[in-house]
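step: validate -> pass
step: tokenize input -> pass
step: predict -> running
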Amino acid sequence: HFSVKGPLNVPRPVQGHPVVVQAGQSEDGRKLAAQSAEVIFTAHQNLASAQEFYRDIKARVAAVGRDPGQVLIMPGVAPFVGRTEEEARAKYQQLNELILPEDG
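step: predict -> pass
step: emit ->
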């Protein structure tokens, strides 16, 4: 146990506070993101799903009284590069074959 008198006697950090990053896509995760996240990391298999997530999050942010323009949504991207599209697809397939079903 200890006690101190008055506030900490050093200046506040110039960056303010740490950036709050959140990455849940469940209902609870989306609620948490809307309430407190400044950056939301997400990954979707297609454009339509990503657009729906974006609209949903921005609406939730506004609904809790926050500025949707101040919340950044960062998409997850995993590029597969090859000399040809066929080679890139083969690399993608090779990686997928290494994933154990119970981990997938």
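step: describe -> Residues 21-77 form one domain.
step: cleanup -> pass
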